[in-house]
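INTERNAL AUDIT FORM
Audit reference: QA-55
Scope: verify that the stored structure record matches its stored sequence.
Auditor: D.O.
Record contents follow.
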Amino acid sequence: MIKLSFDKMMGDNIEALTSQPFCKDKEMLKKLATEHKGVVFALNDGEKYKAAAALVFEMNDEVLTCALRKLYLTGLSFDDAARTDGCDGMMLEYTADQALYMGYDLLTVRVSLADAGMLRFLSAHGFDRIVRVEEKDNNVVLQRDLKRKISCCGFYA
């Protein structure tokens, strides 16, 4: 039996996450966890971490973050098995719930326009507002209203 748990990553346990092969931008995650400029969550299956997400408090960009209104989602990554067993969606929904619990209304994320799979995934999980298209970098900034509840299948309840 697999026992899933969500862990808040801090300076003392961030190395266990960043040593995982799926973990992207290891230095950014370490910096967020140790300098308290954001919060990092990870999904553990009892043996290893399967997914991770980071919320950044301030990006010096009003579109991405604004005090007590929006958080910026970054560092969303998961291993290949997490994509097929639904852990990717669980990680995202847990992170969104934590952002709402912390008092934020909106969650923003920047994603490459070339990453059709991630765009579909985020759209299915409530990121339904295009805030900005960054043509120069081939990115789009999407936003999710955290006050709207999403069901397990990605549809509004």
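Auditor finding: record pair retrieved intact. The CA atoms of residues 51 and 87 lie 7 Å apart.
Action required: none
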